[in-house]
TrEMBL record:
Compositional bias of kind Polar residues: 201-214
Stretches of the chain forming a coiled coil according to its record: none
Name of the protein in its database record: R3H domain-containing protein 2
SMART domains for this protein: R3H
Disordered: annotated span: 185-254
GO molecular function: nucleic acid binding
SUZ domain: residues covered: 89-159
InterPro entries listed in its UniProt record: R3H_dom, R3H_dom_sf, R3H_domain_containing, SUZ
Pfam families: R3H
């Protein structure tokens, strides 16, 4: 590796580190001053103690200037000792020259970048525009269309909730009601022609529209009493069914 390549390599190692850059520049200035003004016979120069990485950088700098160099001391006191020889000379291109050229190019590039920046007024107007676009609500037509689409998904195309196979007539069907009440009472019910009479209801015989005698009036009174008791049982059973559905304790009526 020639001398110029060594200078470029050392400059690239320290250009982005402020402490390393300052160390190399100050040491190079001391070396140039030493070579220009030193008239001693030994030609020895001792540098300040530094860490291992920075001693490595100083070794490379001493190699560029042609010094005989070595590290002496222990621990934090370890430092470089340079000795001048017949090969020692100031190089044609210094490390400081390359570093200053790099600093000038970086400054010019940075200044051009700064000149291309937009003014604060333009940046503020762009920010206001972006905020206004972000906070503008959707048009009324779009919101109505989205509402109709969501309603159709939930209630169907006609706007009414789909009932399915369940018929509302079952709620008012007396046969179904009798079956539910009989199931709650633990009885069996068979469908008969007369919807008001269950299996456990006494047989009252056929009815006619003719003249009623005293026996028929007693039978009618008995049937009315039986119908009234049946009605009470049905109401009680219905209450127990609703209480069971609501999770409440049911009380049997006396």
């Amino acid at each position: 590796m020639n001398q110029f390549a060594m200078v470029e390599e050392l400059a690239s190692l320290v250009k982005d580190n402020l402490y390393s850059k300052h160390l190399i520049l100050s040491t190079e200035e001391a070396l140039v001053t030493f070579l220009q003004q030193d008239t001693s016979s030994d030609g020895i120069l001792e540098l300040q103690p530094v860490g291992s990485y920075h001693r490595l950088l100083l070794h490379r700098l001493a190699e560029i200037y042609g010094f005989v160099h070595e590290s002496v001391g222990e621990g934090e006191a370890r430092h470089l000792v340079l000795e001048r020889c017949h090969e020692t000379a100031i190089p044609s291109v210094l490390v400081s020259d390359i570093l200053w050229d790099h600093a000038d190019s970086y400054t010019s590039t940075s200044s051009q970048h700064i000149l291309k920046r937009e003014s604060p007024e333009i940046l503020a107007s762009k920010l206001e525009q972006s905020l206004s676009v972000a906070t503008t609500p959707a048009p009324l037509e779009e919101r109505q269309a989205a509402y109709r689409a969501a309603r159709n998904l939930i209630f169907g195309p006609n706007g009414t909730e789909e009932v399915g196979s369940t018929s509302p007539k079952l709620r008012t069907d007396p046969t179904v009601a009798r079956r539910m009440i009989a199931h709650a009472l633990g009885r069996k019910v068979e469908t008969k022609s007369n919807p008001d009479i269950c299996d456990n209801e006494p047989n009252t015989g056929s009815r006619n529209n003719g003249t009623q005698n005293s026996g028929e009036r007693r039978g009618n009174s008995s049937r009315a009493s039986s119908a009234e008791n049946l009605k009470k049982e049905q109401i009680g059973a219905a209450k127990r069914m609703f209480a069971n559905a609501l999770g409440r304790p049911s009380t049997r009526e006396k």
